[in-house]
Amino acid sequence: MSTFDKVIGYESIKEELLMIVDMIRNRDRYSALGASLPKGVILYGKPGLGKSMLAKSFVEECGLKPYVLRRNTGSNNFVDVVTKTFEEAKENAPSVILLDDMDKYANDDSFYSDAEEYVAVQSGIDEVYDSEVFVIATVNNIDKLPESLVRPGRFDKKIEVLSPTDKDAEAIIEYYLSDKKLDPYVNMEDLTRMISYSSCAELQTLINEAAIYAAYDKKDSIEMSDIVRSVLRMQYKSPDNYTKTSDEQIKKTALHEAGHLVVAEVLQPGSVGMASLRAEGRDDVGGFVHMYKEIARRPHDVMVALAGKAAVELYYSESCASGCQQDLKHAVNEIRRGLNMSGTRGLGMVDVSIRGLEPSESYNSKNEAVTQAELENYLFKTRNIILKNRSFLEATAKALCEKKTLLYSDIKKIREESTVCEISECFEYN
């Protein structure tokens, strides 16, 4: 049994680390083919994703004498500790050094590329270069480290650790639920698709909060409603109810969120994991659509952003939909990014600063005109998708008004019971 088995998910990363372990254990086999051991590995990514656990598993799996270096205090002798650690590792080679949270070795408030702590690590790595000392490091913010430290020759491999998705996410959720008394009717697919988390620690807190709600309400087990309540409260800062919102405002908000949902589901089926109306300060109602999968294409992303406005104005044509500022800002930014960075409307629109030029008044004017034309074009296409899928839109808005929160299984059921036009049908013209 591998020590990596205690780490849930991350199969590709574990496979890459196990390959290095095999090289450490069987150097002759690799050297016979001219392959040399990489000079160090960095695992980097957001805090709380399990980088340290992966690194510790690697250290344990290697079977070499381990040295773990971590800055626990702000003491002034840390540079001496770094130097001594590398000296001892070299004396007791073959060995492995784990530099845990290496970006925290220097002042955590700014970027100190010349900090003496980093210089000491760099010198230590150079000192053990020809020794049987392997170095593995974990880093939250790799950009904080000097390029001279993380370059090939000191760290040949840099592996990004991302938030788990799909099967990995489901396995991690099941792990955190393993010691909880869960209602048998909890839908794991709904649960996996509704929760957005940046770290395993955040996920653990979300599930524990649901258990607290269930216990406080004197329930025998944690129900789906407890988990939904935890997600709404902790991730979306939503109070449990709202008392000063009119039915008409709730209907408008439901239409707005249904617009986002329907266009997303038409352009990329299965992309929405949850949709909800939520209280905003108890005096107003807002809403959100949680994307389980990111919209892959920029034009589709723009249309999803515009869909809330388009849906409301379809039924309230006497006025422009309000509360769409963030959606419009996102749509405009994506259009400009396409024009100026990717050249979606020709190289003449690419940001002139890339060529070292200052934008002229003519360029700015043309840029703005094309951006507005693109915005209107995408809004037209978005309205077309909504018009072709009115039954889906109306069923979704009605369900939102009634339930306030729709999970993946609800969305899937509504879609199956509605007439849904595929994207190719939405843009057919006679």
Summarize the structure.
The chain is of the alpha/beta class. The protein has helices spanning 11-25, 27-31, 51-62, 78-91, 116-127, 147-150, 166-177, 188-194, 200-216, 224-236, 247-267, 298-315, 325-342, 361-388, 390-403, 408-417, 423-426; strands at 41-44, 65-69, 95-99, 133-139, 157-160, 272-280, 284-291, 405-407. Helix 5 links the parallel strand 3 and strand 4 (133-139).
Topology-level CATH name of the largest domain: Methane Monooxygenase Hydroxylase, Chain G, domain 1
- Give the SSE order as H and E letters: HHEHEHEHEHEHHHHHEEHHHHEHH
Structural class: alpha/beta
Strand order of the largest sheet: 2-3-4-1-5
3D structure, described in words:
The chain is an alpha/beta fold. The protein has 3 domains: 3-160, 3-Layer(aba) Sandwich (Rossmann fold); 166-236, Orthogonal Bundle (Helicase, Ruva Protein, domain 3), CATH 1.10.8; 247-426, Methane Monooxygenase Hydroxylase, Chain G, domain 1 (Up-down Bundle). Helices cover 52% and strands 10% of the residues. The chain contains 17 helices and 8 strands. It has a 5-stranded parallel beta sheet with strand order 2-3-4-1-5, with helices on both faces. Strands 7-6-8 form a 3-stranded antiparallel beta sheet, sandwiched between helices. Helix 4 (78-91) runs parallel beside helix 5, helix 11 (247-267) runs antiparallel to helix 12 and helix 13 packs across helix 14.
